[in-house]
TrEMBL record:
Coiled coil: none annotated. InterPro entries: AP_endonuc_2 (IPR001719), AP_endonuc_F2_Zn_BS (IPR018246), Xyl_isomerase-like_sf (IPR036237), Xyl_isomerase-like_TIM-brl (IPR013022). One of its GO terms (cellular component) is nucleus. Residues 11-20 have a biased composition (Basic and acidic residues). Its cofactor is Zn(2+). PROSITE patterns: AP_NUCLEASE_F2_1, AP_NUCLEASE_F2_2, AP_NUCLEASE_F2_3, AP_NUCLEASE_F2_4. It comes from Electrophorus electricus. Pfam families: AP_endonuc_2. This is Xylose isomerase-like TIM barrel domain-containing protein. Keywords: DNA damage, DNA repair, Hydrolase, Metal-binding, Zinc. The lineage of its organism: Eukaryota, Metazoa, Chordata, Craniata, Vertebrata.
Amino acid sequence: MGPRKRGGKKRTVDLPEVEHSSGAGEPSEESSAEVVKGKRCKTKGGKKYIGAHVSIAGGIWKAVEASVDIGGRSFGLFLGSQRSWKRPALDKDAAVRFQEACVQHGFDPTHILPHGSYLMNCGSPKEDVFGKSQAMLVDELSRCNTLGLTQFNLHPGASMGSSTEQCMDRIAQAINHAHQQIPTVITVLENMSGQGSTVGGQFIELKGIIDRVRDKTRVGVCLDTCHAFAAGYDISSAGGVKSMLEEFDLVVGLHYLRAVHLNDSKGKLGCHLDRHEDIGRGQIGISAFRDIMNEPRLDNIPLILETPGCAGFEYAEQIQLLYSLCED
């Protein structure tokens, strides 16, 4: 499951009464309503760039407005339709309006992380699917370049009956090809939940892809908290976030970490199900997100929500909750 599309409708935000569960699925000692009470996101967490995946409906520049409306300091977005392999070229005037809106509202390109189309499978052993995926990756990086964006996030791919090694070979082949065609844009690999034949659920698999990418300065990783938990990384336990980051540093290297997708998990630890839940309401629990908000190794990178949202607890409220967890 990926990010929900959202519009940019303005509204007054009231802090919600929030229920949540700990990593074991039981209520924790401190409710997130208590965490939020009396605290505003603008006074703390200055080095944390929290935002959400927002809609481009009405024009790609609308994503900037939508992010401002929910109090985001970073954001994710799609760069075109998710329904078709072939998409109209990016309108140059729209690209200019997008860049102007980013400057106007103070969004640095390093805090904007476009999300790749779910149609892509750069690890597919089927030549037609691989060919279309590779061409779409080139198109996505080209759109980033036109928009003045510096990085692009994608799900690595699925082996679909081939070996993991062969899948990693093809993913890197597609990335190397796209890098030859489009300058400067960094390709950011997202860790996966391990569902089906997807590759990238384990850090060693992300390292395997990175090892095959020729220009190491143009590859990075986005850690999705739900995916990591579903893949077996227990960030819900005390010290779990630090342990995961230490393992990531040992296996991949923290210098490759470019972003985090902030999602609680409907599924239990190691379930391999990609099922996002609202912050503090899933199996990961609020304590882990407190640790994330106070982890200095996650400063100054985009921290982007892709949660389902429910009435009274949508992106704006969850962003406020997360900022309230910051201790300084």
